[in-house]
Design a protein that fits this description.
By secondary structure, the protein is mainly beta. It is built from one helix and nine strands, in the order ββαβββββββ. Helix content is 9%, strand content 66%. The strands form two sheets. Strands 1, 2, 3, 4, 5, 6 and 7 form a seven-stranded antiparallel beta sheet that branches. A two-stranded antiparallel ribbon has the order 8-9. It is flat.
């Protein structure tokens, strides 16, 4: 991964074989980023996506082992227990132009990933909501 800051925004390149969530978390930890907006495009060779089920309070998972274009990757960086908390959603297109989408649990870069991380002033924490069993923004 390489990153360069321009004003309030980091331009980030995540390279072939690197895991997007891991690299973004490492960048945020190293740079002290605790509140940011994330957007990216690129390609992946392996993905694990999830869709949350409120009834079971679990993520239904889809694991994909094929080359796919990242048509949209958006989300946020906040903080939880003093550490960066990366929350991304992805829409991926396979070779047949079939879309797969959901909560990004794992994304391994298949060619490159071009990402913007726009840092905002302040800090937003996450707090566990027991009724929903998910981590929500806490101001």
């Amino acid at each position: 991964m390489q990153a360069k800051r321009f004003g309030d925004t980091y331009a980030v390149r995540i390279d072939l074989g690197e895991e997007i969530m891991k690299e973004l978390t490492a960048l945020c930890d190293r740079e002290g980023i605790q509140f940011a907006e994330v957007s990216a495009i690129g390609a992946v060779s392996h993905a694990v996506l999830g869709v949350y089920d409120l009834e079971s309070k679990e993520y239904g998972r889809e694991e994909l082992d094929t080359f796919m274009e990242i048509t949209s990757l958006n989300g946020s960086v906040t903080a939880m227990d003093g550490k960066p908390y990366v929350h991304l959603h992805a829409t991926l297109a396979d070779r047949n132009h079939v879309l797969h989408g959901g909560h990004a649990l794992s994304l391994q870069v298949g060619a490159t990933c071009e990402m913007f991380v726009r840092v905002m002033d302040g800090k937003v924490d996450r707090e566990r909501n027991p009724a929903l069993s998910i981590n929500l923004w806490h101001f």
